[in-house]
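HUMAN: Quick job: go over this next protein and say how the chain folds.
***
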Amino acid sequence: MSLLSLGFMQRAIIAGCLVGMLCALIGVFVVLKRLSFMGAGISHAAFGGVALGYVLGIHPTFTAFVFCILTGLGIAFLSKERRLKEDTLVGIAFASTMAFGVFLIGIGKVRNVDIFGYLFGNILAITREDLIFASLLSGLVLFVLFVFYKEFVIVTLDPEGGKASGIPVEAFSYLLVTLVAAVVAVTIRLVGIVLASALLVLPAATALIRARTIPQAMLFALLNGIAVSLGGLFLAYFLNAPAGATIVLLGTGVFLVVSISSSSPRQG
C-alpha cells in the first residue's frame, strides 16, 4: 500500500500545507513587528484553553482558539494602557495561563487527556474534525490578510505615517494580534504548544535574510514553510520520530544554512 493512500497521512499532508502556509505569511509581520515573544506567550496560553475545553466538554481546539485571542488582545491592550512593558506582560501570561491549565486539570479530575499531544503535537493523529476547523480558520485568516494587506504593511513598517494618513493603526494592531492567535490555535495540533511559536517565526526569519521586499519575503516564507512542514513530516515518519520536533529542527537547520551562507564573504 502506498504511503500517500493512507488516510491519516493524507490528513497530515493537508494540515502541514495549511499550517506551513499560515505561519509563513503571518510570520513575516510577526518578525518585522517584533511580536515573536508575544507569539510564544500566546502559544503557551493555549494550554489553559485546552484544559478549559476538556473540563467543560468542549472541543479543546475551539477553546484554545478563544483563549489565545483573549490572551493576545489582553497583552496588547495592557501594554498600551499601562506602564508595564510587553515582555513583562507576556511573561506573566506565559506562567499564569500554564498554571491555570494545570489547575483546571487537577480540580476537574480529568482523565485520559492527551496533554502530551497538545504540548508537543501529533500531526499524524489529526482527525477530520480538526482538519475542517483548521481549513475554515485558515480561509478566514487568509481572507483578512488579503483584504487588509496594505494596512498591515503600513502598521508594521510605518505606524506613525499610518496615523497621519488616517489609518486606525491601533485597531489593525489588535487585528494582527488576533490573526497571530488564530494561527497559533491551528498550529498547536501540528507541532504542539511548546513548538508552535518556533514554526511561526522560523520560515519568516529565514525568508527575511534574503528578501528585499515584503511580497518577496512572503513568497520565500510560504515556500519554506510548506517545504519544511512536509519534509519534516515525511522525515519523522521514516525515522519514527516526533513530527512536531522534526519539523521545527528541519526549519532551524534551513535557517542556519541560509544565515551562514548569507554572511559568508562572496568570492570574486
Remarks:
- The mean pLDDT is 84.
- The chain has one domain: 7-262.
- The two ends are 52 Å apart (CA to CA).
- The chain is about 80% helix and 0% strand.
